[in-house]
Specification:
The structure is a single chain. By secondary structure, this protein is mainly alpha-helical. It has one domain: Sodium/glucose cotransporter. The chain contains 14 helices and no strands. Helix 1 runs parallel beside helix 14 and helix 9 crosses helix 12. It is globular. It is a multi-pass membrane protein.
Amino acid sequence: EARVLSFGWLDYSIFGLMLTVSTVIGIYFGCFGTRQRTKNEYLLGNKNMSVFPIAMSLTASHISGITLLGAPSEMYTYGTQYWMMCLAACIVCAVVAVAYMPVFYTLQITSTYEYLELRFSSSVRSVASFMFTIYQVLHTPIVLYVPALAFSQVTGINLHMITPAVSAICIFYTTLGGLKAVVWTDTLQQIIMMGSSIVVMVLGIIAVGGLDIMWQRNVDGDRIEFFNMDPNPLIRNTFWTVTIGMTFIWLSHVGVNQGMMQRFLSLPRLSDARWALLVFCVGICWCKTVSCLTGLLIYAHYQDCDPLSTKVIKRADQLLPYYVMDLAGSIPGLPGLFVAGVFCAALR
């Protein structure tokens, strides 16, 4: 039978500490830090934010639990072609730095949708804002569902009790602390998320016997593929669909997304925003690489005993939690750190 992650007192403590510190950050900036009396102070952090926390917040806003659980499963099942989206990230960041940022900094607007009103009309702005709202309403429950499901499995707490409680905490510190609270909680959560992912990856490298053994086993299993140049758009992953396709998709997320551009505009100068964009690009590529390497480690670990084929697990999205338990379930606090990392990816 499949071994599942289970929580002990240390795991609950780690997870609870993450939520508590996030809440305290919101209370600090809302009640004790620099008071936020104007729209500029509340929405843009008074335009005096620093590069590092903004870059961490940007990275955290682009990585979700879907990535942390889905990318390793993608590597395990279909191979490394998906990894080429790091090239798409570099292309997108270059385009945004040259074509998008100068426009918004010149206009000094609070919302990206203000540009649509200036360029076209208030009706166009309203339609775009409405479409973005619909997107968020449909997207946010999916992002919350994945970590909530993982937490439910390790604690036994009802899924429909977890999501409202965590959402309420997120809404509380966001509403009370404004952009500064969002940015600094994102920074904390990004560090936890990256830390948990790196711990799992390092343990996996040790268990399999090194990166060279991992790579060879994936070569033997035909999992290494980066330049599938087949132009057929019906193939799951090719060089064209992953790089060119993801470039256009990510332009909407990085170039004109309200949350992303609002963070960029909280920096005092265009040069600062470009530095934050560069760090964001490195951060995204690093997070994707760690997740993809973890997928290759899972494949190398189970090369001769596929948990899906043997019915040990039912779905591919259970691979990473099962792997963590199989690899180091006896290490105190690791399940809590892992689930906290997955949850941090959703609280953005």
